[in-house]
Write a structure and sequence with these properties.
This protein is α+β, with helices and mostly antiparallel strands. It is built from seven helices and seven strands. Strands 1-2-3-5-4 form a five-stranded mixed β-barrel. A hairpin with a 5-residue loop joins strand 4 and strand 5. Helix 4 packs parallel to helix 6. The radius of gyration is 20 Å and the shape is elongated. The relative contact order is 0.12. Bound molecules: zinc ion (ZN). Zinc ion binds next to loops.
């Protein structure tokens, strides 16, 4: 076969295709997102079957096709099985993968997103505080895309928003607002502003150590709304994630989340 190549990749999406095939969206280490066909994978004796599960990280051997590439072989490095077996973890991981799928163009050069996604999946698998992991992921992914909200000065008047102010995040304004400029926007607590500022420079090792609880829930809800605004659409997986987060946290009265 002409045009075989190898790449390390994570499976972002899997969709049935034709009678026995699946269409697989891969996020590759070197060349961004690639759509590839896993031929015959739904047949019982397919050698590919074990390797084409969503969230799996593997070394893929692909052949170049005219319109679609095809998966010839895969060697699994980490299957992240727990993310598929635990419904809460699955809801978070699905959202992370769908958001990445939406943000990444096909064959984009890697901008750090590949490494971010595999570290995020590992953190969702290993840690209990899934909101904390998601909060860090959202801030990183917004930063890579050039949409990181302004979190120090008011985006309306330019004055510094001091510690102890309530958090008002304006998606259309691109950042926080001070008390004078709030207008109709809903606000979250002062602790939420402090946590947001802290999470911008945080990493996933924190997720095993700090307990941010309901404040964290507020911050993640605001960041999810922020991301929805920039995508100009709601992700399918966000409905499921909202239900899981509300059931788990029970922190219903979050300003600005709904
Ligand atoms: Zn202001």
């Amino acid at each position: 076969v002409v045009g075989l190549y190898r790449t390390r990749a994570v499976v972002l999406r899997v969709k049935d295709f034709g009678e026995a095939d699946r269409l697989v969206t891969l996020l590759t280490a070197e060349s961004g997102k690639v759509q590839a066909l896993a031929k015959g994978v739904r047949r019982p004796k397919s050698k590919l079957a074990g390797g084409i599960s969503i969230f799996s990280l593997g070394d893929f051997q692909l052949w170049q096709g005219k319109s679609l590439d095809g998966i010839k072989q895969v060697e699994i490095i980490e299957s992240y099985r727990l993310l598929r077996e635990n419904i809460e973890k699955m809801a978070y991981a699905s959202y992370v993968c769908e958001l990445t799928d939406q943000l990444q163009g096909e064959r984009d050069a890697d901008s750090g997103v590949f490494s971010l996604v595999i570290h995020t999946l590992a953190a969702l698998q290993d840690y209990e505080d899934l909101d904390l992991v998601l909060g860090i992921f959202l801030l990183r992914v917004l930063s890579i895309g050039g949409y990181l909200p302004e979190i120090n000065v008011c985006v309306s008047c330019g004055s510094v928003v001091p510690i102890g102010s309530s958090l008002v995040l304006s998606a259309s304004g691109g950042g926080i607002l001070c008390a004078d400029c709030i207008r109709g926007e809903k606000s979250a607590s002062a602790e939420a502003l402090s946590l947001l500022r802290f999470l911008v420079n945080a990493d996933y090792r924190l997720a095993g150590r700090i307990k941010a609880g309901s404040v964290n829930y507020q911050v993640v809800s605001l960041l999810m709304n922020y991301v929805t605004y920039y995508l100009e659409k709601r992700l399918k997986s966000s409905d499921f994630l909202d239900i899981i987060r509300e059931e788990k946290g029970g922190f219903k009265s979050v300003n600005g989340s709904k």
